[in-house]
Design goal:
Radius of gyration: 15 Å
Shape: globular
CATH architecture of the largest domain: 2-Layer Sandwich
CATH topology of the largest domain: Signal recognition particle alu RNA binding heterodimer, srp9/1
Distance between the termini: 39 Å
Mean pLDDT: 92
Helix content: 10-25%
Number of strands: 8
Largest sheet: 4 strands, mixed
Number of helices: 3
Number of domains: 2
Strand content: 25-35%
Strand order of the largest sheet: 1-4-3-2
CATH class of the largest domain: Alpha Beta
Structural class: alpha/beta
């Protein structure tokens, strides 16, 4: 018996805004939308593909009434594929991200950032040639 990692759900106040931000960050597109929920991904999942092999998970943004109060215990790490880390950080700042301190200390090879609702994520090593 096996399961697949099919989606990561993120609670938020404004699913449309966060979905748009993460679509720009990851070059994803909206694949499903309903009242209070937006799902984005790099592909449109179907049962046969998911059962056949591991596929990249989608991201779901679900509207909740409460705000974020503490550091995330789960976060995304992203790696730029066509630019250096510094250039990617600058691009993300332009999209509405902020840099943040979660106690990581100075001199790290990654940059800790937060999306427009304060969810932390890391910009890791570049994969650019």
């Amino acid at each position: 018996m096996t399961s697949r990692f099919t989606e990561l759900t993120i609670d938020c106040h404004d699913p449309e805004r966060l979905a748009a931000f993460w679509c720009e960050v990851l070059d994803f597109e909206v694949i499903d939308r309903s009242e209070g929920k937006v799902e984005i991904g790099s592909w449109v999942p179907n049962v046969e593909d998911v059962r056949a092999r591991q596929m990249p998970p989608t991201l779901q943004f679900i509207r909740v009434p409460e705000g974020k109060t503490v550091k995330n215990r789960l976060h995304l790490d992203i790696s730029p594929v066509d630019a250096g880390t510094e250039d990617e950080v600058a691009r993300l700042l332009g999209l509405g991200a902020t840099t943040t301190d979660v106690g990581q200390g100075a001199g790290r090879s990654w940059v800790v950032m937060a999306d427009p609702e304060g969810n932390e994520f890391d910009v890791s090593r570049t994969l650019a040639p």
